[in-house]
């Protein structure tokens, strides 16, 4: 277990597409984004906003948001606590802001208990073709 003095957590966000080939679109370049590290809490409240520009509404349904939750370690590589994958197919983003609470699962495992939860907000603006993702908080993260 990490010393309470040094542990913390952060969330990395990227999108993924298995069927898109968007030449000349901002969607083509996937630059992972990350929150700041919040230390000494197993229930971090990030409240950080990330905006993806240039995504036409017709292509939103083909994307998925991939969140990786990391345990910060000052002296070595960060450990992966788990991940959340949210396919945007079937989600009606035209209705305005949407809150979602998803269980954090261990990487490469379908069901995993005890990894915690991630709360996010999604909002799509069709007039500007922007998808706004707010990483609100994580809760019940494991200590290691």
Automatic annotation (TrEMBL):
Which Pfam family name is an example for this entry? C2
Database matches in InterPro entries: C2_dom (IPR000008), C2_domain_sf (IPR035892)
Top-level taxon in the UniProt lineage: Eukaryota
Q: Which residues form the C2 domain?
A: 1-101
Instruction: Give the PANTHER family listed for this entry.
Output: SYNAPTOTAGMIN (PTHR10024), SYNAPTOTAGMIN-4 (PTHR10024:SF114)
Q: Which SUPFAM superfamilies match?
A: C2 domain (Calcium/lipid-binding domain, CaLB)
Which PROSITE patterns did the record assign? C2 (PS50004)
Question: Which range is the signal sequence, renumbered to this chain?
Answer: none
Record protein name field: SYT4 isoform 7
The record's comment on protein family reads: Belongs to the synaptotagmin family.
């Amino acid at each position: 277990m990490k010393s309470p003095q040094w542990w913390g957590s952060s969330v990395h966000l990227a999108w993924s597409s298995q069927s898109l080939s968007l030449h000349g679109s901002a969607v083509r370049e996937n630059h992972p984004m990350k929150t700041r590290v919040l230390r000494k809490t197993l229930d971090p409240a990030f409240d950080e906003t990330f905006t993806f520009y240039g995504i036409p509404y017709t292509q939103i349904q083909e994307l998925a948001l991939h969140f990786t939750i990391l345990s910060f370690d000052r002296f070595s590589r960060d450990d992966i606590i788990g991940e959340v994958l949210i396919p945007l197919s079937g989600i009606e983003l035209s209705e305005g802001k949407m809150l979602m609470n998803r269980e954090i699962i261990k990487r490469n495992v379908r069901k995993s208990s005890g990894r915690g939860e991630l709360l996010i907000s999604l909002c799509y603006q069709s007039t500007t073709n922007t998808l706004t993702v707010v990483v609100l908080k994580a809760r019940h993260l494991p200590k290691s």
